[in-house]
Design goal:
This protein is α+β, with helices and mostly antiparallel strands and about 325 residues long. It has 3 domains: about 80 residues, no CATH class; about 110 residues, Cupredoxins -  blue copper proteins (Immunoglobulin-like, Sandwich); about 100 residues, Orthogonal Bundle (Cytochrome Bc1 Complex, Chain D, domain 2), CATH 1.10.760. The chain contains 8 helices and 12 strands. It has a 5-stranded mixed β-sheet with strand order 3-2-1-5-8, with helices on one face. A 5-stranded mixed β-sheet has the order 4-10-9-6-7. A hairpin with a 5-residue loop joins strand 11 and strand 12. The longest helix is centred in the N-terminal third of the chain and has 34 residues. The mean pLDDT is about 90. The structure holds heme C and copper (II) ion. The site of heme C has 29 residues, from helix 5, helix 6 and helix 7.
């Protein structure tokens, strides 16, 4: 769709859908207002005081068929718009299984980005074109909102809870990134850019970044340094559950509930271990609240996700 000069560029299929819906709704609304105003004028003139226009009862076909006709037509128009809008909105919630996962930490007043291969950036987000990207986001202080106008997506970033948003960019370029939730003095400056690159350029960019270990590797080092390994890698008699294959599985808790071990569960297990006690274990795990930052939790979670029980050989 062609857009006005002051309209943000469209860098994904979803962005074009959003614009179609916006302009479609504007168009439909304008047409209806135009029709109502036109009829108002026509009838106002036709049935003005003293005019000789017929004023008897309406013919039967007008009152029935026209009534049914316009009701059905508007109903279908709006059901169609609802379906179209909802279907495209849902694509920003559910991520494709092969999506590239990128972690975002919002804090007053900057965006910290962690790629799963360990590359970090601040206020800049590099992504490849044509590959589904899933952002997993959390705030270290107040509520922020991650807003990418060129992709028409915006999602609150909350303290204490992961939120996510997904997109597949289809146009290279550098576009704005904003915080869209007032978050204090420098809120207006909490922004940067998203750089959408061709796949090959993206790979080159990744390779050129200062060599860091991937996120899971950094998480493993942290796991040892913070003393998690002392309990969780213990051999023989186990005081703590084995974390191999934990991610995505169902965990039985001491109080009889069963929960799925997703990102949020892992995060809660580290910060509030007394909340969900695993069945068969004593509640001896200390809380790491205040000891680990949100970026470090992303690393620990990445490690637990990737861990498949090879501690003995590599610890
Ligand atoms: C003092 C020993 C100890 C330390 C240190 C410890 N844990 Fe634990 N952890 C436990 C025990 C015991 C449980 C099971 C009871 C519970 O859920 O609190 C557990 C549970 C967990 C679970 C949930 C496991 C499941 O099967 O659902 C995760 C995840 C976890 N710990 C991660 C960590 C991380 C990460 C660290 C380091 C930052 C850590 N633990 C440090 C003893 C420990
Ligand atoms: Cu903010």
């Amino acid at each position: 769709m062609r857009h006005f000069i002051f309209f943000p560029p469209e860098a994904s299929v979803y962005a074009r859908h959003v614009d179609w819906i916006l302009f479609g709704l504007l168009g439909v609304s304008a047409a209806i207002i135009g029709l109502v105003v036109a009829l108002l004028l026509v009838f106002g003139i036709r049935y003005r005081r003293g005019s000789r226009a017929p004023r008897g009862p309406l013919p039967a076909w007008v009152s029935r068929d026209v009534e049914i006709g316009w009701t059905v037509a508007t109903l279908f128009t709006f059901v169609f718009i609802f379906w179209y809008a909802t279907a495209s909105f849902l694509t920003t919630i559910g991520a494709a299984p092969n999506a590239l996962e990128i972690h975002v930490v919002g804090k007053q007043w900057m965006w910290k980005i962690e790629h799963s291969n360990g590359v970090r950036e601040i206020n800049e987000l590099h992504v490849p074109i044509g590959i589904p990207v899933k952002l997993v986001m959390i705030s270290q202080d107040v509520i922020h909102s991650f807003f990418l106008p060129a992709l028409r997506i915006k999602q609150d970033v909350l303290p204490g809870r992961y939120t996510s948003e997904s997109f597949t960019a289809d146009k290279t370029g550098t576009y704005n990134l904003f915080c869209a939730e007032y978050c204090g003095t420098d809120h207006a400056r909490m922004g940067g850019s998203i750089v959408i690159m061709k796949k090959a350029d993206y790979q080159k960019w990744l390779d050129a970044q200062p060599g860091a270990e991937n996120l899971a590797g950094q998480g493993r080092q942290l796991f040892v340094r913070l003393g998690c390994a002392g309990c969780h890698f213990e051999k023989g008699h186990r005081r703590a559950p084995d974390l191999a294959g934990l991610y995505g599985s169902y965990v039985e808790l001491a109080d009889g509930r069963t929960v799925r071990a997703d990102d949020s569960y892992l995060r809660d297990s580290i910060l509030q271990p007394k909340r969900d006690i695993v069945a068969g274990y004593a509640p001896i795990m200390p809380s790491f609240e205040g000891t680990v930052s949100e970026d470090q939790i992303f690393e620990l979670v990445a490690f637990i996700k990737s861990y498949s029980g090879d501690a003995e050989t590599t610890q």
